[in-house]
Amino acid sequence: MNGPQIQISFAPALHLFVPADRRSGRTLLTTDGTSSLGHVVESLGVPLTEAGRLLVDGRPVDASHVPGAGETVEVEDVVRPQPVPGAPLRFLLDVHLGTLARRLRLLGVDAAYESEDIGDPALAALSARERRVMLSRDRGLLRRRELWAGAYVYSDRPDDQLRDVLERFAPPLAPWTRCTACNGELSDADKDTVRERLEQGTEKTYDVFAECVECGRVYWRGAHHARLEAIVSDAVREFGGATTR
Length: 245
Description:
Blueprint: E1 5-10, E2 27-30, H1 37-43, E3 51-56, E4 59-61, E5 72-77, E6 91-93, H2 98-106, E7 111-113, H3 120-130, E8 133-136, H4 139-142, E9 149-152, H5 158-169, E10 186-189, H6 191-194, H7 200-205, E11 209-212, E12 218-219, H8 225-239
Parallel strand pairs: 1-5, 6-7, 6-8, 8-9
Antiparallel strand pairs: 1-2, 3-4, 3-5, 10-11, 11-12
Protein name: Mut7-C RNAse domain-containing protein
Domain Ubiquitin Mut7-C: 4-79
Domain Mut7-C RNAse: 90-231
């Protein structure tokens, strides 16, 4: 390729995406002279969802900027907490992030989740249609132009995934208000109205219940409550919010 040459560097947080020889400060890159800076950045492995400001010779430019010969490009990482203007903050998670989806719902965060692999085009279209931030570890999915917004989930450990999302987006927390199974909202339920759906032992042991207004699932403080309470308490302590049950 005999196009313009630029100098390009990436913020340390982005080094996991770029080839090893691009991780040590500014490096020389020959472009084709017609591709946008956004295309150049993605061609080097960085989804634009993970790129913050793009600086050319120290001044911010749009991703549509076409790099010229001799320019110095700096690719910053996203600011945290990251604002998501234009819609209520809510998420869409791909098939590999079921545990993260349930934990976000446990904290009252609107988190839609596809339990089956419906394919990248369908996920991107759903993100755009419902204006949800797509959460995924699939870099190819995050490069799809149809996405309304997206974010790479950096860890494969649910504890770290949850902390990453809460730190990055700072969603308001309302624990115990959302169904972990379907994402619907919970309402208090009288024991008599849910009695027929309870096991005999549960009916005798518990008196306080909640019910999902969407799927009808019944909740109570059962054997797993202490473990869930620990997840909630840790998140509220670190990121704010108030328990409601």
